[in-house]
Amino acid sequence: MTSTVVLYPSAGYRDLDTWRGLKVGQRPNALTPDQSPQHRLGYVIRELREAHGLSMRELAARTFVSHSKVQRWENGDRPPKDLGEAELIDRALGAGGFLIGLWQAIGGKVSQPGHVSDAAFHVSDTSLDLATALSQAAASDGKGIFVPRRLDDGTVVLVALDRRALLRAGAGIGAAAVAGFPVPASAAVTEDPFGFAKAATASWSGLRLSRPSPEFGVDWHALLPGGRSMLGSQLSLQVHPARIEGRRVIVSVPDQRRAEEFLARPHRGLLVGAVNAAGSPAFYALDGRAARAKLTRNGGVYEVTAPTAYELDDLTYGILWAVSNYDDALQADDQALSETRSDLRAYERLSASAVSREAAPGLNTIAHMWLGSDFCARHILRALPDLPTLPAFWTREQRGEEASAWLIFDHKFPYLRETTKALGSTSTRAFCIPEEVVRSSPRYERILLFLAVALMESLGIHAQFTTDPAYEAVEGFVVAPDKEAVIANWVRGDGMWHVDVTARTSVVREFTIAARDVNADSITAAPTAAGRLRALAQYLELPWSWLIDRCGQLAQYGSSGLIQSRSRLVSAAGIDAACAYVGSLPTDH
Fold first, then answer.
1. Residue 16 pLDDT more than 90?
2. What's the pLDDT at 259?
3. Cα(first)–Cα(last) distance of the chain, in Å?
4. Bridge partners for 462 per DSSP
5. Helix, strand, coil % in the chain, rounded to nearest 5
6. Residue 219, number of CB atoms within 10 A of its CB
7. Confidence label for 185 from pLDDT (cuts 50, 70 and 90)
8. Total Cβ atoms within 10 A of residue 43
9. CA 514 to CA 392: how far, in whole Å?
């Protein structure tokens, strides 16, 4: 990160040992920087220009002036005419404000020879402060930045730092110190200055994080795990220091250009703010496209504001995991899926069909799931008006992976609303979730299952649960007890879907008994939706008050700022409605 030392005020040699053996003025045609403030400014401009390997014409092009004007700057004949011009030079040469200080010492006029104001040097006597260097690097357009420091013998030096290496480290090292994170002695080579990777992989065992090389503006590549059907997903992340102000997280972005390039890319990116409060790190995520619109300048620092509701925990990680998995897979097969859906419409004319996945070759498993779910929803809506009595529903979802389709697939939330409207009354929906399934499901998946059930309860659908594994093999159905049944199954089936409308006695009896058994012995039985959901939270080992609090926070801002979908087949409406409903529930009995 640190290269050589540019000495000042001296003969201009960049090797410290060589310089110590020379006298001032031994360099041919050298300026005498002690002669006046404008000579001192011209000297430093030349030193920095040459350190960057720039010709006078190249510096002129970067500062929008003529070659002769650069000559006059460096010769001390005519300093920059105004603050704006001084800022242009300072930025082009990565001086971090040092040149501006020298220009201000001139006082807008040519000073008398021999008088050099100490105000021209805002030079620290301390060791190099990387947090300060970082702020200077962020304001620079050049490849290097120069931090002024005073040696023990009083000599002023400009320490040359590689700008991109410094920003890569913090945004690593210096930024971590600014954010209040402890910086170890080995901070110069640390790979995880904010402790983000350590905290994230400890919280979610399936998550894999890697440092890209070369980094191209990306701090971390995150590989989100797949599941029984999910294929896994990839996110790119930038991690920056942040602070809390009320209910807002203010993320400090040290390198505006690097952040803008990262956020402008069409890939799925997250901007992560790291806060270290009382030694306990917390991380807040913002979707890259949302962050791009919020990037603003506050004084000399660029910042992005996010709500504290976007703190990374099991709720928000679960949403990120499910949305990115479903969204990426559906987006990948978008055109083929649309064409296949049109081809399969012929099955809608049949009252019964069982379609294998071979009918949609080349599509991924999530696309198969979406086709099956969509077809089953439309099959039930067509058959529902003809059922002779109020039906009971049975669904096969057991885990968050399957249940999150209710929250994310674009047709699922409208389907629930339409069935409720068609029935004109409350209905029941039964689930079979054995204890072994709960024990083997990570917490974020159990939260997704809970939210899916909460979405149903918000529409007046009474959810009922059995833990008996004997019911795991029962297909999804809608039954008018003892009279008629609609079969509609796409979850854990042999094909994309199996649908039917039947009055066969054996089938109707099996479904009627299953529905009545669960209704009689539901582990979540309660007279109110809040009571049923509280019992479900207890069974899934989820803290009730925390669920209400976190869902309420997220509902205030919506989930699209956390993660935005790309696929037209994915919607945030179900997630937001479920969170809003849970957030409105009472925390007591």
1. no
2. 87
3. 59
4. 428
5. 45, 20, 35
6. 25
7. very low
8. 24
9. 10
| Identity of the residue numbered 481 | P
Pair of tokens at residue 473: 């093999």
- Count of C-beta atoms within a 10 Å radius of residue 242: 28
Give CA–CA dist 115/581, Å, rounded: 73
For residue 187, is pLDDT > 60? no
Whether pTM exceeds 0.85: no
> Smallest Cα–Cα separation from 373: which of 417, 408, 421?
408
Which residue type is seen at 23? K
CA distance 338 to 316: 30
Render 523-575 in DSSP notation, one character per residue: TT--SSHHHHHHHHHHHTT--HHHHHHHHHHHHHH-STTT----STTB-SHHH
Cα torsion 392, 398, 402, 407: sign: positive
Residues 6+ apart with CB under 8 A from 148: 8, 98, 121, 122, 123, 124, 156, 157, 158, 159
CA 478, 480, 482: angle at the middle one, nearest 5?
125
**Residue whose entry in the numeric block shows the structure tokens 């029984």:** 228
Segment 82-92 mean pLDDT: 85
The strand ranges marked E within 254-403 are 269-277, 280-287, 296-298, 301-307, 353-355, 392-394
Phi and psi at 306, nearest 5°, equal -135, 155
Beta strands 233-245 and 248-253 are antiparallel
Q: Characterize the bridge pairing of strands 461-466 and 427-432.
A: parallel
pLDDT at 1 over 90: no
353 pLDDT above the threshold of 70: yes
The token pair that represents 186 in the structure block: 């080995």
Whether the CB-CB separation of 307 and 562 falls below 8 Å is answered with: no
Pairing of strands 233-245, 269-277: parallel
**Burial annotation 129-155 (CB, 10 A radius, 16+ → b, else e):** ebbebbbbbbbbebebbbbbbeeeeee
CA dist 229 and 227 (Å) reads: 5
> For the chain, how long is the longest CA-to-CA vector?
110
Identify the pLDDT of residue 589: 54
Q: Taking the CA atoms of 172, 174, 179 and 185 in sequence, report the sign of the dihedral they define.
A: positive
Of 125, 136, 147, 126, the closest CA to residue 48 belongs to 147
Q: What is the mean pLDDT of residues 270-288?
A: 90
- The dihedral over CA atoms of 156, 162, 165, 171, expressed in degrees to the nearest 10, equals 50
pLDDT grade, residue 361 (50/70/90)? very high
Task: Report whether pLDDT(256) > 90.
Answer: no
The residue ranking higher by pLDDT, 163 or 192, is 192
> For residue 149, what pLDDT is reported?
55
